[in-house]
Amino acid sequence: MNKISASASHTNVPTVVKNPVIKAHLLKWLKAITLPVLIILLCEYLVRTGWIEPYLLPAPSSLLASFRDLAQGDLFTHVYTSTWRVFFGFFVGSALGLIFAIAVGLNQHIEAFLEPTFSAIKSIPSLAWIPLLLLWLGIDEASKITLIAIGAFFPTYTNTVSAIHNVDKKLFEVAKVYRLSHMQIIFQIVLPAASPGILVGLRNSLSLAWMFMIAAELIAATQGIGYLLSDGRETSRPDIVIIAIILLAVLGKLTDTMMKWIENWLLRWRT
Question: What residue ranges are annotated as transmembrane (predicted)?
Answer without folding.
Answer: 86-106, 118-139, 145-164, 185-202, 208-229, 241-262
